[in-house]
Design a protein that fits this description.
The chain is α+β, with helices and mostly antiparallel strands and 272 residues long. It is built from seven helices and twelve strands. The strands form two sheets. A six-stranded mixed sheet has the order 2-1-6-5-4-3, with helices on both faces. It has a six-stranded mixed sheet with strand order 8-7-12-11-10-9. The chain is globular and about 60 Å long.
Length: 272
């Protein structure tokens, strides 16, 4: 168990401290729900919802082209009609980072577009950034942009997914994302685990986790190989209820196979 204990990687949206200080967790939950409802409305072609959520002066950036309110709604109607005729995979949004005040908000998240049914292709990943303002008591989207994720971004989010898998004892994530000949070196015992052993370790973990944090992460990509380094800081309790407070410096090695990044090796070292 090289990662030793899961951590939550942060892709921090760059916003002033005075903005984040005024944003409650309840506000963030509501804004995430709004963003997901907006996605559903866009996919289904709900014109009334879209005309209500886009501000009159909306400006969006897609690639190198800007879009006004009328254009973005028209494009959503066209795409929804095409999707009704030929349904495609439904994208999901996750890893939200939200900052807001009483009247302004910035939302960023990953979007995952799965491969078509029966395809062995890797999912397609993008990141979206939205700016909203409150007018008349309702949130309105004033600007939005997005971009495909390069390999470094894909790997950064993959570390976040990996952390979540450990936290939830999701051995199936290991099965899907570890190469068959992957190895894991435990920072606690120094023992080496193969893929099958790692799957069982994740499923049988008895620790509980309270605080999960990643810092100092560095992603280096060289062709179809990549190395990610960083520090895991975790607080929680072990099976006996004893407090856990550890920092582990880790090195994760990935290989790209058939267009998909896979974990090849992982090793961690306790920082005393």
């Amino acid at each position: 168990m090289a990662r030793a204990i899961a951590v939550a990687a942060l892709l921090v949206l760059a916003v002033p401290a005075r903005l984040t200080a005024q944003c409650s967790e309840a506000d963030k939950v509501a804004l995430e729900a709004l963003d997901k409802a907006w996605s559903v409305a866009t996919r289904s072609g709900d014109r009334a919802y879209l005309e209500n959520i886009y501000a009159a002066g909306y400006t969006g950036l897609g690639g190198t082209q800007t879009q006004d309110r009328a254009t973005v709604i028209a494009n959503a109607m066209r795409d929804a009609e095409a999707n009704r005729a030929t349904p495609g995979p439904v994208a999901t949004s996750d890893h939200y980072q939200i900052a807001c005040t009483a009247n302004t908000a910035a939302i960023t998240h990953r979007a995952v577009f799965p491969a078509a049914a029966g395809s062995t292709n890797a999912p397609f990943y993008t990141r979206a950034i939205h700016v909203l303002e409150k007018a008349g008591g309702q949130w309105k989207v004033v600007s939005s942009t997005g971009h495909p994720l390069a390999d470094a971004g894909i790997l950064t989010y993959m570390e976040m997914d990996w952390n979540q898998a450990w936290k939830t004892r999701d051995g199936e994530w290991v099965r899907a994302n570890f190469a068959n000949n992957a190895s894991e070196v435990s920072s606690a015992t120094g023992m080496i685990e193969n893929k099958a052993q790692s799957i069982e370790s994740y499923k049988n973990d008895k620790n509980t986790y309270e605080s999960l944090q990643l810092s100092g992460m560095n992603v280096r990509v060289n062709g179809d190989m990549a190395v990610v380094t960083g520090i895991n800081h975790v607080k929680g309790k072990d099976a006996a209820g004893k407090a856990i407070d550890r920092r582990v410096r880790f090195t994760d090695t990935f290989v790209k196979r058939d267009g998909r990044w896979m974990v090849m090796a992982t090793q961690g070292t306790d920082i005393k």
